[in-house]
Amino acid sequence: MNNPVALASVNELEQTLATPSKNLIEDVANLEGDIMLLGAGGKMGSSLARLARRAIEASGVRKKVIAVSRFSNTSLVSELQADGIEVIQADLLEDRALDALPGVANIIYMFGMKFGSSGNQPLTWAMNTFLAGKVAERFRESRIVAFSTGNVYPLVPVDSGGATEDGATGPVGEYAQSCLGRERLFEYGSQRYGTQTLLFRLNYANDLRYGVLLDVARAVFEGHPIDLSMGYANVIWQGDANEVALRSLNHCNSPAEILNVTGPKTVAIRWLAKEFSKHFSKEPIFENTEQETALLSNASKMTKLFGKSSVSLEQMITWTAHWLKIDGETLSKPTGFQQREGKF
User: Fold this and answer.
1) Which of 5, 136, 157, 201 could join 189 via S-S bond, C-beta 3.0 to 4.6 A?
2) Is 207 helix (H, G, I), strand (E, B) or coil?
3) Are 148 and 181 in contact (CB under 8 A)?
4) 116 pLDDT tier (thresholds 50, 70, 90)
C-alpha cells in the first residue's frame, strides 16, 4: 500500500481501509462461496465489509458480501448497500433470527460486548458466549473466523515477547472470561461437527477514530494524565487486521486454529506519549508506574502466514497526530487498555 503522509477526511480513511492488497485479492479469488459478516454494525464491520467487496470486484469472481447486524445507524445501511453489500437487519438474540439467515460458506463472526460489561454481566455472557454456541450450531457446515481477544491470556512479563497461541489462557474479569467461553463453544462446534474454524485473537486494532494510539494521543493533546499501570501494549492498523480476517478464511481448520492478530512490537506507553509530544509540542503527564507484566500477544504466527503489516507503527502515529490536529471525527470509545483487572 502507498501510504499517504496524512489522511484528511473520513472518506479518505474509509477509502484507505477498503483498498485490498494483491495477496488479499488472490486469496478471495481462491475462496469458494459467499461471505457473511455477523455483527457488521460495530467499529470494524463496515470497513471489513467494504474491503471484502472491493477484493471480490478486483478478483473478477462473483460472490456476495452480506452484512448482518441490528444496524441502529440507518445511514450506514444505505451506505453499505450503495457499495454493493447486501444488508440484513436482525437481532440474533431473538428467537429464530439465526434460522432466517441464508446458508453461506464463509462466516466472519464479530458479535460481542465489551464496554458496559461490568455493569451488565448477564447480557455480556449472552452476547459473548450463548450466541456463539447458537452460531456454531447453525453454521456448522461453514468456515468460521470467530473474532476473539487477547484478553483471554493472562498478563505476561513485558520482556516475554507476548503470549503465544499454544500458551495457557488466563482471562482476568468477566468480559475476558465470557470471551474464552465464546472460543470454547466454537471449539466444541469444530470438534463435534468438523467445522473449519479459526479463533481470531485481536488486540488492539487502531483506526484514526479509536484505538490505543488515539487514547494516548488525545491525553497528550488535551493535557490529561496517562496511567502507566498497564505500561505496554500491542497495536495493529485496522486495515491490516481486516485483511488478516478475510485471508484467515483460507486457514480455518478442525480442531479450531488459533491466531493472535496484532502488531509485532511491544509498545511502551511512555515512549508512545513522548512521540506524540513531538507532534503537539506538549509534554505528556504521567501517573502511576509501569508494572512488570502487561496484556501482550506474540504475532509471529500471523507474520509467518501473512507477512508484515502494510502500515507501520510510525505511520500510525503520524496519521493519528494529524487527525487530532484537524479535529477529525472520533467515536468516543476509549479502549480501556489501562485496565489490569478486566473491568470494562
Assistant:
1) 136
2) strand
3) no
4) low
- Residue 2 banded pLDDT, cuts 50, 70, 90: low
Q: Write down the pLDDT at residue 342.
A: 77
Joined together, the cell numbers standing for residue 51 give 474491503
For residue 194, give the C-alpha cell: 468438523
Number of domains in the chain: 1
Beta bridge partners of 38: 68, 109
> What percentage of the chain has pLDDT greater than the value 70?
98
E-only strand ranges, 39-98: 65-69, 86-89
Question: Does residue 285 fall inside a structural domain?
Answer: no
The DSSP line for 252-280 is -BSSPEEEEES-SS-EEHHHHHHHHHHHH
Q: Are strands 197-202 and 225-227 parallel, antiparallel or unpaired?
A: unpaired
C-alpha distances in Å from residue 153, one per residue of 35, 42, 165, 230, 276: 29, 23, 9, 15, 29
Q: For the chain, what is the mean pLDDT?
A: 94
Amino acid at 126: A
- Torsion from C-alpha of 130, 235, 244, 81, nearest 10 degrees: 70
Q: Would you tell me how many other CB atoms lie within 10 Å of the CB of residue 6? A: 17
Q: Is 309 in contact with 237 (CB distance < 8 Å)?
A: yes
Q: What is the 8-class DSSP label of residue 33?
A: S
Residue with cell 507477512: 307
Q: Between the CA of residue 166 and those of 99, 159, 288, what are the distances in Å?
A: 35, 18, 32
175-213 confidence digits (pLDDT tens): 999 999 999 999 999 999 999 999 999 999 999 999 999
Q: Would 327 be classed as within a structural domain?
A: no
Q: Which residue do the cell numbers 471484502 mark?
A: 52
The answer to whether residue 224 sits within a structural domain is no
Give a yes or no: residue 76 inside a domain: yes
Q: Looking at residue 143, what DSSP letter applies?
A: E
For the chain, the C-alpha Rg in angstroms (whole number) is 19
- Evaluate if residue 283 carries a pLDDT over 80: yes
CATH of residue 29:
3.40.50.720
The reported pLDDT for the residue numbered 334 is 85
pTM of the model: 0.95
